[in-house]
Design goal:
The protein has 278 residues and is an alpha/beta fold. The protein has a single domain, classed as Aldolase class I (TIM Barrel, Alpha-Beta Barrel). The chain is 29% helix and 21% strand. The protein contains 8 helices and 12 strands. The chain has an 8-stranded mixed β-sheet. The chain has a two-stranded antiparallel sheet with strand order 1-2. Strands 3-6 form a two-stranded antiparallel ribbon. The longest helix has 14 residues, at 218-231. It starts with 23 loop residues before the first strand and ends with a strand. The mean pLDDT is 97.
C-alpha cells in the first residue's frame, strides 16, 4: 500500500484515499498532493505579521494559503482552511495557480513594497512540491521566500525546499511530548528536529501560542527556552496570547499577565523575545 513520507504519520493510503492532512492523496499508486497550486487566500501583509521581527523589518510580503493540515489543534486559528468542517467547500471555491502565475502576481506588487512570497495560513508543507517549485522561480526573479509552518515534517521535505527558503516562522506549540501527541496530534521530537535542521539553512523565528492548560506553564517555558538557547540564543521567540477559537471557543483568553510572565522567563535564556496579541 502506498505510503506518504511528509510527516511522522506515514499514512498508508488506498487508491483515491486522502491522508489525515486532507491535502495528499493516493493517485496511480503514488501519494501526491491533491492541492498543487490551490490558493484559498492571498494578501499583501507586513512581514511582522508572520510573525518575523528580525527579517527584513518594515517590508511587505505576499502571503498565500492553501488547504489542509497534519495537526489537530483544538484551538486552530484557521480551521476553515486547515481541518474544520468547511475545508471541503473552501477547496471547491479556491482558485488554482501554477508557480509561474503566482510569481508574476508577486512581482506586480513589488512597487507596493513586496519582497517575495510567504506560504502561510494553513500548513504549507503538506503541499511542499508547490512551495518548492514556486520558491525556486521566485528566487530566480530576485525575490525572497518565507514559510510559516508547524514544523511537522521529515528532514527529506526540508531538504527539498531549503535551497529556496530565506526565512521561517515555526510554531513550537508546547514542550511536552504527551500533550503534543494527545492534544495536538503531533510529534514534539519531529518538530524539534525540523527546527534544529532549519536553523542551519534559513533565518528562523519561533512562535508559542500561550493556551491555558496546554502551554502556559512557567516550568515548560523554562525548558523550552533553554532548549532553543542550546541551538542559538539569538533565535527570536514570539510568545503570543490565545483568544478562543474553534473547539475551544468557550474558553477564556490567556491573561495578559501570563504572557508577560512567560516572556520574562524566556528572556532569561534568549536575547530576542516578543509578545503578541496583547
Amino acid at each position: 500500500m502506498p505510503e506518504c513520507h511528509v510527516c511522522y504519520r506515514h499514512c498508508k493510503l488506498n487508491e483515491g484515499q486522502a491522508g489525515i492532512c486532507g491535502a495528499r492523496i493516493c493517485k496511480d499508486g503514488r501519494v501526491v498532493t491533491r492541492d498543487y497550486g490551490l490558493v484559498s487566500a492571498i494578501a499583501l501583509d507586513p512581514i511582522e505579521k508572520k510573525p518575523l521581527s528580525r527579517f527584513c523589518p518594515g517590508s511587505k510580503i505576499l502571503s498565500v494559503g492553501s488547504c489542509g493540515c497534519n495537526l489537530r489543534c483544538p484551538f486552530c486559528q484557521n480551521d476553515d482552511i486547515s481541518w474544520g468542517e468547511d475545508v471541503g467547500q473552501v477547496r471547491k471555491e479556491s482558485r488554482v495557480l501554477d508557480p509561474e502565475e503566482l510569481v508574476r502576481i508577486a512581482e506586480r506588487y513589488r512597487e507596493d513594497g513586496n519582497i517575495g512570497i510567504a506560504f502561510t495560513y494553513n500548513e504549507p508543507l503538506v503541499t511542499y512540491e508547490f512551495v518548492r517549485d514556486t520558491s525556486k522561480l521566485s528566487h530566480e526573479a530576485g525575490m525572497k521566500n518565507v514559510i510559516v509552518s508547524n514544523g511537522t515534517a521529515e528532514s527529506s521535505v526540508l531538504s527539498e525546499i531549503a535551497p529556496y527558503i530565506d526565512a521561517m516562522n515555526i510554531d513550537l506549540k508546547c514542550f511536552d511530548a504527551d500533550t503534543y501527541k494527545s492534544v495536538l496530534g503531533g510529534n514534539l521530537e519531529m518538530t524539534k528536529n525540523f527546527i534544529s535542521q532549519a536553523v542551519k539553512t534559513a533565518h528562523v523565528e519561533l512562535t508559542c501560542l500561550i493556551v491555558p492548560g496546554i502551554s502556559d506553564s512557567p516550568e515548560m517555558m523554562r525548558e523550552m527556552s533553554g532548549w532553543i538557547a542550546s541551538l542559538d540564543d539569538e533565535i527570536p521567540l514570539h510568545v503570543s496570547r490565545f483568544f478562543p477559537r474553534f473547539h475551544m471557543a468557550d474558553s477564556r483568553p490567556t491573561p495578559v499577565a501570563t504572557v508577560y510572565e512567560l516572556a520574562d522567563i524566556a528572556r532569561e535564556k534568549l536575547k530576542y523575545v516578543y509578545t503578541g496579541n496583547c
